């Protein structure tokens, strides 16, 4: 057996896999600023649930070096391996997390062929939506329905999360419909991410917490001009890849 941990800026994900690489236990919870005690508890719970005492641990994500007694692994490698294990074929993986967005071209053997990242600004990540949805007081579970009801998108031109927040407030004050603003936000984010993926041929897969938002999946597919398939249990892809790397 093996354990994998993906310590992201927003959530901490962990899995236990058996000898066949199947996930037998899992955890997803908000990342605590005190990473070490959180990870120690999560791993202890997984070991007890899966009977994985003494199993090796692989760690990825921005907090990977703060996971005790774990092998630190790069996010690119882990996400490619996890997605390939889940889907069994080559393609282009778009992983949208809270801190960065990764576009990884996966080869026929599950290897990383090429990759691009947006890690300099929150405007191309899940944090962009998180900040503005919080400001608009729109619950996450209502987003997809409101976007689907939008008659037209209201363009959001700011490429900075802080400025976009101010722009959205002005649009609301000016009487623009909330549904249209939400649709415009999704299109703006999708266009930034699509710019990283253009030129990469093949099926497009999506992982990360943002993949749980159907409106974002649809917007990305529209921006790319091809369908986007969500990887099963999209939040666990990196942790799965980390576990498989030390199995």
What does this structure look like?
This protein has one domain (2-120, 193-246): ATPase, nucleotide binding domain (Nucleotidyltransferase, domain 5). It has helices at 35-50, 75-87, 126-136, 140-149, 161-173, 178-197, 214-224, 237-246; strands at residues 2-7, 11-17, 23-30, 57-60, 71-72, 91-96, 101-106, 112-118, 204-207, 228-230. The mean pLDDT is 91. It contains 8 helices and 10 strands. The protein is α/β, with parallel strands linked by helices. It is 42% helix and 21% strand. Strands 3-2-1-4-5 form a 5-stranded mixed β-sheet. A 5-stranded mixed β-sheet has the order 8-7-6-9-10.
Global outline: globular
Tally of strands: 10
- Largest β-sheet summary: 5 strands, mixed
Radius of gyration from the alpha-carbon trace, in angstroms: 18 Å
CATH superfamily: ATPase, nucleotide binding domain
First-to-last CA distance:
6 Å
Which CATH class? Alpha Beta
Strand content: 15-25%
Structural class call reads alpha/beta
Order of helices and strands: EEEHEEHEEEHHHHEHEH
The tally of structural domains comes to: 1
State the share of residues found in helices, binned by percent.
Answer: 40-55%
Report the uncertain regions.
none
What would the CATH topology be? Nucleotidyltransferase, domain 5
Named at the architecture level, the CATH assignment is 2-Layer Sandwich
Strand order of the largest sheet: 3-2-1-4-5
Helix count, per DSSP? 8
Mean pLDDT, rounded to whole units? 91
């Amino acid at each position: 057996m093996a354990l994998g941990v993906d310590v992201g800026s927003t959530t901490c994900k962990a899995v236990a896999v058996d000898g066949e690489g199947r996930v037998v236990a899992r955890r997803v919870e908000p990342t605590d600023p005190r990473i070490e005690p959180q990870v120690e508890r999560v791993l202890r719970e997984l070991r007890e649930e899966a009977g994985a005492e003494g199993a090796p641990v692989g760690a990825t994500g921005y907090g990977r070096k703060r996971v005790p007694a774990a092998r630190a692994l790069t996010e690119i490698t882990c996400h490619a391996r996890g997605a390939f294990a889940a889907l069994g074929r080559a393609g282009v993986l778009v992983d949208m997390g809270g801190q960065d967005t990764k576009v990884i071209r996966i080869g026929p053997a599950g290897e990383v062929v090429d990759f691009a990242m947006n890690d300099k600004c929150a405007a191309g990540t899940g944090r962009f939506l998180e900040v503005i949805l919080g400001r608009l007081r729109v619950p996450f579970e209502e987003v997809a329905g409101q976007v689907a009801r939008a008659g037209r998108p209201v363009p959001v031109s700011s490429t900075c999360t802080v400025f976009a927040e101010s722009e959205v407030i002005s649009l609301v004050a000016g009487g623009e419909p909330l549904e249209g603003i939400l649709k415009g936000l999704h299109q703006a984010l999708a266009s930034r991410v699509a710019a990283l993926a253009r030129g990469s041929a093949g099926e497009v897969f999506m992982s990360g917490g943002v993949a749980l938002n159907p409106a974002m999946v649809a917007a990305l597919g529209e921006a790319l001009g091809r369908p986007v398939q969500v990887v099963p249990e999209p939040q666990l892809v990196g942790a799965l890849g980390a576990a498989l790397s030390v199995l």
